[in-house]
Amino acid sequence: MTAKPRVFSGIKPSGDPHLGNYLGAIRNWVNDQDRYDNFFCVVDQHAITVAYDPVNLRANLRQLAALLVACGIDPDRSCLFVQSHVAEHTELAWLLTCTTPMGWLERMTQFKDKSVGGQRERVSAGLFTYPTLMAADILLYDTLVVPVGEDQKQHVELARDLAARFNHLYGDVFTVPEPVIREVGARVMGLDDPTKKMSKSDEGANRTIGLLDTPKAIQKKFARAVTDSEGHIVFDDNRPGVTNLLTIHQTLSGLTKAELEARFAGRGYGDLKKELGELVAEALTPIQQRYIELTEDPRTLDQILADGAARAQAVAAQTMSRVRQAMGLR
Ligand code: TYM
Questions:
Q1: Which of 30, 36, 137, 151 to mutate to test the pocket of ligand 1 (most atoms within 8 A of CB)?
Q2: Which segments of the chain have a pLDDT < 70?
Q3: Residue 202 pLDDT
Q4: Annotation marks residue 4 as catalytic
Q5: Nearest to 79 by CA among 318, 311, 325, 317
Q6: Ordered domains of the chain (ranges, CATH)
């Protein structure tokens, strides 16, 4: 039997995980668990690159880890762990920082977006080197496949370029990874402004559907979702509001674009929004139930994360000894 290809992906414990995280990433991790040898990581060290509250960080981390299990990440088939529990991540991040040209980091659009204007003087150096920590996450595990949403593509490509550069400079140490981005759901947009992606950090009250939102809150947010005044319901890149709603429907219903357009022909936005609210609530309710069960039993989660860290550390330690050897350290 040939070994399954290794998957690695990560998610930050900053704020409530949302429907974009679920449709763009988590759901695909869950559905593909049998195809791959899986490593999934709650990346707390990425969350501290911006201002944060330590008490909230700890609570968010536990909430996110429990939600990942509730979404279907199965600890028997996937290694689920916390980044800071495996010290090799920060060690490799430093070594990679020393092999990363500044220009490569300066080109990262996420850093450019978060450091516009006077912000550059104030944001942390960690925000700038964030992609080298992310590359370390990926490269420590001989990862081939990195399933992410569209917004992380550039970072994964940097990890790929860094692996190739490192191998060229120091010998063949790293597996060169590839981003895998789904066609549908890779960029879920904000409900209040469909030109901006759905995101944890934006405060817009109606931007984001949280994975723990009640059915009532979900219905209300969809009812208020910004569309346009054209009325008919079709996919159209020039009409981001209605296209976003249809895309969310598509990810959950599995219908094709043509089937969805036919389904809503002659119907109004109100119908689409109502149906979508029901579809999303139906998908999230069982997740929320499992989440509550898990929070009532904190020791199970502790055990899952301790086992995950031990498994991850065993792989990471082997990679690090190859890296140190190649770089002339120790
Ligand atoms: P994070 O925590 O912002 O997001 C986690 C995953 O959710 C995806 N995502 C979205 N997908 C569709 N529509 C959206 N609106 C949306 N918002 C977020 C993200 O693309 C991501 O796949 N830097 C990463 C975490 C990370 C990582 C890694 C990922 C750290 N190390 C190594 C992969 C491999 C991040 O901040 O994701």
A1: 151
A2: 1-2, 201-204
A3: 60
A4: no
A5: 311
A6: 6-186+298-327 (3.40.50.620), 215-292 (1.10.240.10)
